[in-house]
Amino acid sequence: MRNALARPDWRLLAPAAALSLAGVLLVWSATRPRMAAAGEDPQTYLKKQAVNVLTGLVAMAVPARADHGTLRAWTPPAFLASMLSLAAVLTPLGRTVNGAQSWLAVGGLELQPSEPAKLALVLMLAVLLGERPDGGRRPRGPQVLLALAAAALPLGLIMLQPDLGTATVMAATAGGMLVVAGVRGRWLALLAGAGAAGAAAAWFLGLLKPHQVQRLLTFADPMADPQGAGYNAAQALVTVGSGGLFGRGLFRGDQTGGRFVPEQHTDFVFTVAGEELGFAGAALLVALLWAVLWRALRIAREAVTPYATLVAAGIACWLAAQTFVNVGMVIGLAPIVGVPLPFVSYGGSAVVACLAAVGVLVAVRRQAS
Predict the structure, then answer these.
(1) Among 76, 113, 108, which residue's Cα sits nearest to residue 91?
(2) Is residue 296 assigned to a domain?
(3) Is 195 contained in some domain?
(4) CA-to-CA distance for 5 and 19, rounded, in angstroms?
(5) Which of 155, 164, 198, 213 is deepest in the core (most CB within 10 A)?
(6) Is the distance from CB of 321 to CB of 172 less than 8 angstroms?
(7) How many domains does the structure of the chain reveal?
(8) pLDDT in tens, 37-96
(9) Residue 144 resides in a domain
(10) Residue 1 domain flag
Protein backbone atom coordinates (compact mmCIF):
# COMPACT_ATOMS: atom_id res chain seq x y z
CA MET A 1 0.00 0.00 0.00
CA ARG A 2 2.76 2.40 0.92
CA ASN A 3 4.51 1.91 -2.41
CA ALA A 4 1.28 2.55 -4.30
CA LEU A 5 0.53 5.67 -2.32
CA ALA A 6 4.12 6.84 -2.84
CA ARG A 7 3.42 6.81 -6.60
CA PRO A 8 0.40 9.07 -6.98
CA ASP A 9 -1.71 8.72 -10.12
CA TRP A 10 -0.99 12.20 -11.45
CA ARG A 11 -2.98 11.50 -14.61
CA LEU A 12 -6.02 11.52 -12.33
CA LEU A 13 -4.96 13.82 -9.50
CA ALA A 14 -3.47 16.62 -11.62
CA PRO A 15 -6.61 17.43 -13.66
CA ALA A 16 -8.81 17.08 -10.57
CA ALA A 17 -6.56 19.51 -8.67
CA ALA A 18 -6.46 21.93 -11.62
CA LEU A 19 -10.26 21.90 -11.86
CA SER A 20 -10.61 22.54 -8.12
CA LEU A 21 -8.18 25.46 -8.29
CA ALA A 22 -9.98 26.87 -11.33
CA GLY A 23 -13.23 26.55 -9.42
CA VAL A 24 -11.87 28.62 -6.52
CA LEU A 25 -10.83 31.41 -8.89
CA LEU A 26 -14.01 31.38 -10.98
CA VAL A 27 -16.24 31.37 -7.90
CA TRP A 28 -14.26 34.29 -6.51
CA SER A 29 -14.60 36.20 -9.76
CA ALA A 30 -18.36 35.54 -9.90
CA THR A 31 -19.02 36.67 -6.32
CA ARG A 32 -16.66 39.65 -5.89
CA PRO A 33 -19.01 42.23 -7.47
CA ARG A 34 -22.04 41.08 -5.45
CA MET A 35 -20.18 41.04 -2.15
CA ALA A 36 -18.57 44.41 -2.81
CA ALA A 37 -21.94 45.94 -3.72
CA ALA A 38 -23.36 44.63 -0.43
CA GLY A 39 -20.48 46.18 1.52
CA GLU A 40 -19.12 42.78 2.54
CA ASP A 41 -15.72 41.14 2.19
CA PRO A 42 -15.18 40.43 -1.56
CA GLN A 43 -13.05 37.42 -0.59
CA THR A 44 -15.84 35.69 1.33
CA TYR A 45 -16.55 33.04 -1.29
CA LEU A 46 -12.87 32.67 -2.12
CA LYS A 47 -12.28 31.58 1.47
CA LYS A 48 -15.39 29.40 1.58
CA GLN A 49 -14.55 27.55 -1.61
CA ALA A 50 -10.96 27.09 -0.50
CA VAL A 51 -12.26 25.47 2.68
CA ASN A 52 -14.57 23.29 0.59
CA VAL A 53 -11.62 22.07 -1.47
CA LEU A 54 -9.48 21.39 1.60
CA THR A 55 -12.34 19.43 3.15
CA GLY A 56 -12.68 17.54 -0.12
CA LEU A 57 -8.99 16.63 -0.05
CA VAL A 58 -9.49 15.08 3.38
CA ALA A 59 -12.53 13.21 2.04
CA MET A 60 -10.39 12.02 -0.87
CA ALA A 61 -7.59 10.74 1.34
CA VAL A 62 -9.86 8.49 3.44
CA PRO A 63 -11.16 6.13 0.70
CA ALA A 64 -7.84 6.33 -1.18
CA ARG A 65 -6.25 4.23 1.57
CA ALA A 66 -9.02 1.62 1.69
CA ASP A 67 -8.99 -1.78 0.03
CA HIS A 68 -11.92 -3.31 -1.83
CA GLY A 69 -13.06 -5.25 1.22
CA THR A 70 -13.25 -2.11 3.32
CA LEU A 71 -15.10 -0.19 0.61
CA ARG A 72 -17.62 -3.00 0.22
CA ALA A 73 -18.12 -3.32 3.97
CA TRP A 74 -18.82 0.38 4.38
CA THR A 75 -21.09 0.66 1.35
CA PRO A 76 -24.40 -0.57 2.89
CA PRO A 77 -24.21 1.72 5.96
CA ALA A 78 -23.13 4.65 3.77
CA PHE A 79 -26.03 4.00 1.39
CA LEU A 80 -28.46 3.73 4.30
CA ALA A 81 -27.16 6.99 5.80
CA SER A 82 -27.58 8.70 2.42
CA MET A 83 -31.17 7.51 2.11
CA LEU A 84 -31.99 8.66 5.64
CA SER A 85 -30.50 12.08 4.92
CA LEU A 86 -32.54 12.33 1.69
CA ALA A 87 -35.66 11.46 3.67
CA ALA A 88 -34.77 14.01 6.36
CA VAL A 89 -34.67 16.72 3.68
CA LEU A 90 -38.44 16.27 3.27
CA THR A 91 -39.03 17.01 6.98
CA PRO A 92 -38.97 20.44 8.68
CA LEU A 93 -35.19 20.07 8.79
CA GLY A 94 -35.12 20.59 5.03
CA ARG A 95 -34.59 23.98 3.44
CA THR A 96 -35.96 25.09 0.08
CA VAL A 97 -33.61 26.71 -2.43
CA ASN A 98 -34.71 27.69 -5.96
CA GLY A 99 -37.97 25.82 -5.66
CA ALA A 100 -36.52 22.51 -4.43
CA GLN A 101 -36.41 21.34 -0.83
CA SER A 102 -33.01 19.77 -1.27
CA TRP A 103 -30.91 21.13 1.58
CA LEU A 104 -30.56 19.87 5.14
CA ALA A 105 -29.91 22.49 7.81
CA VAL A 106 -28.68 21.17 11.16
CA GLY A 107 -26.91 23.20 13.82
CA GLY A 108 -25.88 25.98 11.48
CA LEU A 109 -24.45 23.55 8.94
CA GLU A 110 -26.02 23.07 5.52
CA LEU A 111 -25.69 19.90 3.46
CA GLN A 112 -27.15 18.85 0.13
CA PRO A 113 -27.55 15.09 0.70
CA SER A 114 -28.15 14.33 -2.97
CA GLU A 115 -24.47 15.02 -3.75
CA PRO A 116 -22.88 12.31 -1.55
CA ALA A 117 -25.86 10.10 -2.45
CA LYS A 118 -24.51 9.94 -6.03
CA LEU A 119 -21.32 8.27 -4.83
CA ALA A 120 -23.25 6.06 -2.41
CA LEU A 121 -25.47 4.88 -5.27
CA VAL A 122 -22.45 4.04 -7.44
CA LEU A 123 -20.88 1.97 -4.67
CA MET A 124 -24.16 0.21 -3.85
CA LEU A 125 -24.89 -0.70 -7.46
CA ALA A 126 -21.33 -2.00 -7.83
CA VAL A 127 -21.86 -4.28 -4.83
CA LEU A 128 -25.19 -5.57 -6.13
CA LEU A 129 -24.18 -6.00 -9.78
CA GLY A 130 -20.54 -7.00 -9.22
CA GLU A 131 -21.22 -10.33 -7.52
CA ARG A 132 -20.45 -13.33 -9.73
CA PRO A 133 -21.00 -16.34 -7.44
CA ASP A 134 -21.36 -18.77 -10.36
CA GLY A 135 -18.56 -17.23 -12.40
CA GLY A 136 -21.04 -15.89 -14.98
CA ARG A 137 -20.42 -12.87 -17.16
CA ARG A 138 -23.75 -11.22 -16.43
CA PRO A 139 -25.59 -10.39 -13.20
CA ARG A 140 -28.58 -12.63 -12.58
CA GLY A 141 -32.21 -11.53 -12.53
CA PRO A 142 -32.51 -11.11 -8.73
CA GLN A 143 -29.35 -8.98 -8.71
CA VAL A 144 -30.77 -6.72 -11.40
CA LEU A 145 -34.04 -6.35 -9.51
CA LEU A 146 -32.20 -5.43 -6.33
CA ALA A 147 -30.09 -2.92 -8.27
CA LEU A 148 -33.19 -1.34 -9.81
CA ALA A 149 -34.80 -1.10 -6.37
CA ALA A 150 -31.64 0.48 -4.95
CA ALA A 151 -31.64 3.07 -7.75
CA ALA A 152 -35.37 3.73 -7.47
CA LEU A 153 -35.14 4.65 -3.77
CA PRO A 154 -32.91 7.76 -4.07
CA LEU A 155 -34.53 8.71 -7.38
CA GLY A 156 -37.96 8.70 -5.75
CA LEU A 157 -36.80 10.71 -2.75
CA ILE A 158 -35.07 13.26 -4.99
CA MET A 159 -38.10 13.67 -7.24
CA LEU A 160 -40.18 14.44 -4.14
CA GLN A 161 -37.98 17.49 -3.46
CA PRO A 162 -38.30 17.90 -6.55
CA ASP A 163 -34.81 18.05 -8.11
CA LEU A 164 -35.08 17.08 -11.76
CA GLY A 165 -31.43 17.71 -12.56
CA THR A 166 -30.01 15.42 -9.89
CA ALA A 167 -32.57 12.75 -10.72
CA THR A 168 -31.50 12.91 -14.38
CA VAL A 169 -27.83 12.49 -13.47
CA MET A 170 -28.59 9.57 -11.15
CA ALA A 171 -30.75 7.84 -13.73
CA ALA A 172 -28.02 8.19 -16.36
CA THR A 173 -25.45 6.85 -13.88
CA ALA A 174 -27.56 3.81 -13.01
CA GLY A 175 -28.29 3.14 -16.69
CA GLY A 176 -24.61 3.33 -17.59
CA MET A 177 -23.66 0.92 -14.82
CA LEU A 178 -26.29 -1.57 -15.97
CA VAL A 179 -24.79 -1.47 -19.47
CA VAL A 180 -21.25 -1.95 -18.15
CA ALA A 181 -22.43 -4.83 -15.96
CA GLY A 182 -23.66 -6.63 -19.06
CA VAL A 183 -27.35 -6.61 -18.16
CA ARG A 184 -29.46 -8.14 -20.93
CA GLY A 185 -31.16 -5.87 -23.41
CA ARG A 186 -34.67 -6.67 -22.22
CA TRP A 187 -33.85 -5.25 -18.79
CA LEU A 188 -32.51 -2.07 -20.38
CA ALA A 189 -35.61 -1.77 -22.57
CA LEU A 190 -37.82 -2.26 -19.52
CA LEU A 191 -35.88 0.41 -17.64
CA ALA A 192 -36.10 2.84 -20.56
CA GLY A 193 -39.84 2.23 -20.83
CA ALA A 194 -40.32 2.75 -17.11
CA GLY A 195 -38.34 5.98 -17.29
CA ALA A 196 -40.40 7.28 -20.19
CA ALA A 197 -43.62 6.33 -18.43
CA GLY A 198 -42.47 8.03 -15.24
CA ALA A 199 -41.55 11.20 -17.11
CA ALA A 200 -44.93 11.23 -18.88
CA ALA A 201 -46.75 10.67 -15.59
CA ALA A 202 -44.82 13.49 -13.91
CA TRP A 203 -45.78 15.81 -16.77
CA PHE A 204 -49.44 14.95 -17.18
CA LEU A 205 -50.19 14.50 -13.47
CA GLY A 206 -48.67 17.86 -12.60
CA LEU A 207 -45.92 16.44 -10.38
CA LEU A 208 -43.43 18.99 -11.69
CA LYS A 209 -43.50 22.46 -10.21
CA PRO A 210 -44.44 25.38 -12.47
CA HIS A 211 -40.89 26.73 -12.70
CA GLN A 212 -39.64 23.31 -13.83
CA VAL A 213 -42.30 23.11 -16.53
CA GLN A 214 -41.33 26.59 -17.70
CA ARG A 215 -37.67 25.57 -17.91
CA LEU A 216 -38.52 22.59 -20.10
CA LEU A 217 -40.72 24.72 -22.36
CA THR A 218 -38.00 27.36 -22.56
CA PHE A 219 -35.53 24.74 -23.74
CA ALA A 220 -37.78 24.10 -26.74
CA ASP A 221 -37.82 27.83 -27.58
CA PRO A 222 -35.22 29.79 -25.54
CA MET A 223 -36.14 33.15 -27.08
CA ALA A 224 -39.90 32.82 -26.48
CA ASP A 225 -39.66 34.74 -23.19
CA PRO A 226 -36.14 36.20 -22.86
CA GLN A 227 -37.12 38.52 -20.02
CA GLY A 228 -39.05 35.87 -18.11
CA ALA A 229 -38.68 32.07 -18.09
CA GLY A 230 -35.97 32.23 -20.76
CA TYR A 231 -33.87 34.87 -18.99
CA ASN A 232 -31.27 32.49 -17.55
CA ALA A 233 -30.75 30.68 -20.85
CA ALA A 234 -30.54 33.90 -22.86
CA GLN A 235 -28.08 35.60 -20.51
CA ALA A 236 -25.93 32.48 -20.26
CA LEU A 237 -25.53 32.38 -24.04
CA VAL A 238 -24.74 36.10 -24.22
CA THR A 239 -22.17 35.82 -21.43
CA VAL A 240 -20.40 32.79 -22.86
CA GLY A 241 -20.34 34.29 -26.35
CA SER A 242 -18.99 37.64 -25.19
CA GLY A 243 -15.61 36.17 -24.28
CA GLY A 244 -14.45 35.52 -27.82
CA LEU A 245 -11.41 33.33 -28.31
CA PHE A 246 -9.25 34.30 -25.34
CA GLY A 247 -11.70 36.11 -23.05
CA ARG A 248 -11.76 39.49 -21.38
CA GLY A 249 -9.41 38.43 -18.60
CA LEU A 250 -10.00 37.01 -15.15
CA PHE A 251 -12.04 39.43 -12.97
CA ARG A 252 -12.71 41.65 -16.02
CA GLY A 253 -15.97 40.24 -17.34
CA ASP A 254 -18.62 42.91 -17.95
CA GLN A 255 -21.50 40.43 -17.84
CA THR A 256 -20.11 38.76 -14.73
CA GLY A 257 -19.41 42.10 -13.07
CA GLY A 258 -22.89 43.28 -13.93
CA ARG A 259 -24.42 40.16 -12.33
CA PHE A 260 -26.65 39.47 -15.30
CA VAL A 261 -26.56 35.67 -14.90
CA PRO A 262 -28.29 34.28 -11.77
CA GLU A 263 -26.53 31.57 -9.74
CA GLN A 264 -23.32 32.31 -11.62
CA HIS A 265 -21.05 30.89 -8.92
CA THR A 266 -22.95 27.58 -8.74
CA ASP A 267 -24.90 26.13 -11.68
CA PHE A 268 -23.71 28.76 -14.20
CA VAL A 269 -20.03 29.01 -13.27
CA PHE A 270 -19.13 27.87 -16.81
CA THR A 271 -20.35 31.25 -18.07
CA VAL A 272 -17.60 32.94 -16.05
CA ALA A 273 -15.02 30.79 -17.81
CA GLY A 274 -16.59 31.54 -21.19
CA GLU A 275 -16.56 35.30 -20.72
CA GLU A 276 -13.33 35.84 -18.82
CA LEU A 277 -11.17 33.03 -20.22
CA GLY A 278 -12.81 32.81 -23.63
CA PHE A 279 -13.31 29.76 -25.82
CA ALA A 280 -9.73 28.66 -25.08
CA GLY A 281 -10.22 28.73 -21.31
CA ALA A 282 -13.64 27.09 -21.44
CA ALA A 283 -12.28 24.39 -23.75
CA LEU A 284 -9.41 23.81 -21.32
CA LEU A 285 -11.90 23.25 -18.51
CA VAL A 286 -13.76 20.69 -20.63
CA ALA A 287 -10.44 19.04 -21.53
CA LEU A 288 -9.52 18.73 -17.85
CA LEU A 289 -12.91 17.18 -17.12
CA TRP A 290 -12.39 14.79 -20.02
CA ALA A 291 -8.95 13.88 -18.61
CA VAL A 292 -10.58 12.83 -15.33
CA LEU A 293 -13.22 10.81 -17.20
CA TRP A 294 -10.64 9.18 -19.47
CA ARG A 295 -8.53 8.16 -16.49
CA ALA A 296 -11.59 6.76 -14.67
CA LEU A 297 -12.42 4.66 -17.75
CA ARG A 298 -8.83 3.42 -17.95
CA ILE A 299 -8.97 2.42 -14.31
CA ALA A 300 -12.23 0.60 -15.00
CA ARG A 301 -10.63 -1.22 -17.92
CA GLU A 302 -7.60 -2.29 -15.86
CA ALA A 303 -9.61 -3.35 -12.79
CA VAL A 304 -9.26 -6.97 -11.74
CA THR A 305 -12.81 -7.66 -10.52
CA PRO A 306 -16.30 -6.86 -11.84
CA TYR A 307 -16.93 -4.87 -8.65
CA ALA A 308 -13.91 -2.63 -9.21
CA THR A 309 -14.78 -2.16 -12.88
CA LEU A 310 -18.31 -1.06 -11.97
CA VAL A 311 -17.10 1.37 -9.31
CA ALA A 312 -14.74 3.17 -11.68
CA ALA A 313 -17.17 3.07 -14.61
CA GLY A 314 -20.02 4.29 -12.39
CA ILE A 315 -18.00 7.30 -11.26
CA ALA A 316 -17.17 8.04 -14.91
CA CYS A 317 -20.86 7.82 -15.87
CA TRP A 318 -21.84 10.14 -13.02
CA LEU A 319 -19.25 12.81 -13.79
CA ALA A 320 -19.84 12.58 -17.54
CA ALA A 321 -23.62 12.94 -17.21
CA GLN A 322 -23.30 15.86 -14.80
CA THR A 323 -20.76 17.62 -17.00
CA PHE A 324 -22.94 17.21 -20.09
CA VAL A 325 -26.05 18.53 -18.34
CA ASN A 326 -24.25 21.50 -16.78
CA VAL A 327 -22.34 22.63 -19.87
CA GLY A 328 -25.30 21.74 -22.07
CA MET A 329 -27.73 23.94 -20.18
CA VAL A 330 -25.28 26.86 -20.38
CA ILE A 331 -24.85 26.65 -24.16
CA GLY A 332 -28.43 25.66 -24.96
CA LEU A 333 -27.98 21.91 -25.53
CA ALA A 334 -29.92 20.85 -22.42
CA PRO A 335 -32.78 22.30 -20.37
CA ILE A 336 -31.91 24.33 -17.28
CA VAL A 337 -32.35 21.82 -14.48
CA GLY A 338 -29.75 23.03 -12.01
CA VAL A 339 -26.72 20.77 -11.51
CA PRO A 340 -23.19 21.90 -10.54
CA LEU A 341 -20.15 21.58 -12.76
CA PRO A 342 -17.99 18.81 -11.19
CA PHE A 343 -15.08 20.12 -9.10
CA VAL A 344 -15.69 23.71 -10.24
CA SER A 345 -19.06 25.02 -9.01
CA TYR A 346 -19.37 26.51 -5.54
CA GLY A 347 -20.72 24.19 -2.87
CA GLY A 348 -19.21 22.07 -0.13
CA SER A 349 -21.42 19.04 -0.71
CA ALA A 350 -20.67 18.85 -4.43
CA VAL A 351 -16.93 19.50 -4.17
CA VAL A 352 -16.45 17.03 -1.32
CA ALA A 353 -18.44 14.33 -3.15
CA CYS A 354 -16.40 14.74 -6.35
CA LEU A 355 -13.04 14.65 -4.56
CA ALA A 356 -14.15 11.67 -2.48
CA ALA A 357 -14.95 9.92 -5.77
CA VAL A 358 -11.38 10.61 -6.90
CA GLY A 359 -10.19 8.95 -3.71
CA VAL A 360 -12.28 5.88 -4.51
CA LEU A 361 -10.72 5.76 -8.00
CA VAL A 362 -7.27 5.88 -6.40
CA ALA A 363 -8.22 2.92 -4.22
CA VAL A 364 -9.49 0.92 -7.20
CA ARG A 365 -6.34 1.60 -9.19
CA ARG A 366 -4.12 0.70 -6.23
CA GLN A 367 -5.73 -2.73 -5.95
CA ALA A 368 -5.06 -3.37 -9.63
CA SER A 369 -1.40 -2.35 -9.48
Answers:
(1) 113
(2) yes
(3) yes
(4) 22
(5) 164
(6) yes
(7) 1
(8) 888 889 999 999 999 999 999 999 999 998 888 999 999 999 999 999 999 998 888 888
(9) yes
(10) no
